[in-house]
Amino acid sequence: MKVKDLESLFVHEVKDLYGAEKQLVKALAKMAKASTDDDLRKAFEDHCIETEKQVQRLDRIFQELGESSRGAKCPAIEGMIQEANELLGEHMEPHVLDTALICAAQRVEHYEIAAYGCTRALAQQLGKDDLAEELQRTLDEEKKANEKLSQIALSHVNQEAMAASQGGRNE
Ligand SMILES: [Fe+2]
Ligand SMILES: [Fe+2]
Q1: Quick check: pTM over 0.90?
Q2: Average pLDDT of every residue of the chain
Q3: How far is the CA of 84 from the centre of ligand 2 (A)?
Q4: What distance in angstroms lies between residue 21's CA and the mean position of ligand 1's atoms?
Q5: Do residues 131 and 61 make contact, with C-beta atoms less than 8 angstroms apart?
C-alpha cells in the first residue's frame, strides 16, 4: 500500500499492529508452554488471551475505516520472535530459560507500547477519537503486561536463575 498522507500512514500503522498481534498470539502460546515458572506461564497464558482480544479490536478498527487487514505484516516482531525461538533452541538451564523468555517478551511489549502510542496519537490528530480510545485500551494492557513481567523477573525468577547458574558451576 502507498503511504502518502497522515490518513494512509495511520492505516499502515494499524496494519503493522495487526501483523504483530497475529504473530504474537502464536508466539505467546509457545512461550507459555516453554516456561517452567508457574507465575510466568500464567502471565503468558493471560496475555495470549488478551492478545486474541486485541486482534478483534483491530478487526473492528479496520471495519470502521472501511479497510482490509489483508497483507498486514510486521517484520520487526517477526525478527523478535525469531530471536526468541533461537533462545528456545539453546537447551539452557530451565530457570535461565525463564529469564531469557522474560527478556524476549519485554522487548516485544516495549515495541507494542511504542507502536500503540504513536498510532493512538495519529488517531487523535485525525479526529478519530473513538479509535484513539480503543487503541488506548490496548496500550494500557501492553503496559500492564510489561510491568507484570518485570515484577515476575525481579520478585523471584532472576534470583532462581542465578541460584541455578551458581549451582551448575559448583557441580
Ligand atoms: Fe498486543
Ligand atoms: Fe503485548
Answers
A1: yes
A2: 95
A3: 15
A4: 5
A5: yes
